[in-house]
Amino acid sequence: MRLRRGPRILLAALWIAGSGCTTLREIPPSDYATQEERKHVRVETREGLQYEFDYMRVEGDSLVGFRRRDVEGSFDEFATLRLAFDDVQRLSSRGVDWYRTGLVGGGVLAAVLVAGLSASLANEDDNTDGGPGKPPDPR
């Protein structure tokens, strides 16, 4: 089974738009404890250290960050770090930026539509000029 060019381009565009654009958004200190767990977190401490965690939990007056370690074996192993709220200067969480994703997806969709329309018009021109789509003359 061979896909035509149009469906391949459409599938590639959907894949690109589906992956989305992500961005780090700073979380205000008043919102640190509003969610019990956050994923894809970056923490900057007052000493200037930066930590990136796969996920983070709020436990009392501190943040507990977990980062998956690359080890061989059948079980996942995590490194854990506990930081007091007072030691945290900035907390950011990575998430999908729907505005950028919409711009990229809309641009790709527009390009696919223009390519499809131009191919359709070119095919129509071939048919009116006695091209391959015109039936043979019966004489």
Describe what you observe in this structure.
This protein is an alpha+beta fold. Helix content is 33%, strand content 36%. It has 2 helices and 6 strands; from the N terminus they run αββββββα. Strands 1-6-2-3-4-5 form a 6-stranded antiparallel β-sheet. The mean pLDDT is 79.
Question: What characteristics describe this protein?
Answer:
single chain; 139 residues; alpha+beta; 6-stranded antiparallel beta sheet; 33% helix; elongated
What topology emerges from the helices and strands here?
Layout: H1 5-19, E1 22-27, E2 37-45, E3 50-59, E4 62-69, E5 77-84, E6 88-96, H2 98-128
Antiparallel strand pairs: 1-6, 2-3, 2-6, 3-4, 4-5
Radius of gyration: 27 Å
How many helix segments? Answer: 2
**What spatial form do the alpha-carbon principal axes imply?**
elongated
Helix content: 25-40%
In N-to-C order, the SSE pattern is HEEEEEEH
Largest sheet: 6 strands, antiparallel
Low-confidence stretches: none
- The proportion of strand residues reads 35-45%
Question: If strands are numbered along the chain, what order do they take across the biggest sheet?
Answer: 1-6-2-3-4-5
Number of beta-strand segments: 6
Structural class: alpha+beta
Write a compact overview of the structure shown.
The chain is of the alpha+beta class and 139 residues long.
